[in-house]
Design goal:
Helix content is about 10%, strand content about 40%. The protein has one helix and four strands. The chain is mainly β. The longest helix is centred in the N-terminal third of the chain and has 4 residues. The chain has one domain. It has a four-stranded mixed sheet with strand order 1-4-3-2, with no helix packed on it.
Length: about 40
């Protein structure tokens, strides 16, 4: 899982990427390609 300041650019890299907020943190999750997982904060 990558930790980044900005997730906007990562979200557009794959069509299955989803932006999710959990416990005050912002995540990118991808069910089909888990290597795109990322976290902000």
């Amino acid at each position: 899982m990558k930790i980044r300041n900005s997730l906007k650019s990562l979200r557009t890299r794959h069509r299955d990427n989803q932006l999710v907020r959990r416990k005050g943190r912002v995540y990118i999750i991808n069910k089909t390609q888990p290597r795109y997982k990322a976290r902000q904060g």
